[in-house]
Amino acid sequence: MRIPPLYQRPSWQRFFAGVVVGALISWFVFLFQYGVFQEKQVKTITKQQDRITNLEQHLDTLMENNTKLNEENKSKLKIQDFKVEIVDHKKYNLAPLTLHNLTDEVVKDLNHLIAMDVESLSKNKELLRKAIENKHYPADDKIYKLKIYAVYFDTTLELSLKIELVR
Fold first, then answer.
1. What is the residue range of 21's domain?
2. Do 98 and 67 share a structural domain?
3. Over the stretch 56-78, which tens digit does the pLDDT of each residue have?
4. What digits encode the pLDDT tens for the residues 9-20?
5. Among residues 52, 71, 90, which one ends one of the domains?
6. Burial class (CB in 10 A: 0-12, 13-18, 19+), 20
């Protein structure tokens, strides 16, 4: 069996030459587009890295200033962080993600208390209790209510909460 001698006809020669030229042109277009895309990505990454370093420097400066102020005002401690724990979450078989979302919601509600004096916050403990206990927290098509079980004041406000299913 023999292959027909189509390569000798001028029409087939033009077709194969067109295929080769088209492949080369498409390869160069691909390389150009890929290079432009990579250049944009590199610019974005360098901008983000610069912003991260600037923010880290800013955070370090703020933390140094905060520690200096705390050392100057040893009698007046300030709230710097929150630790929220839901004590009886196993009672409702909450998924870890749902538990995390509930604690995040509580922390978001408490964010306005950062840099507040521990002394004044301990005097207004009942206001803190009402702010948490009067709010309903939706999660997974259910609504939960949180009750404060224990509160510990230091530079870190530690809350232990009990959970109740509203509906």
1. 6-71
2. no
3. 999 999 999 888 877 776 667 77
4. 788 788 889 999
5. 71
6. exposed
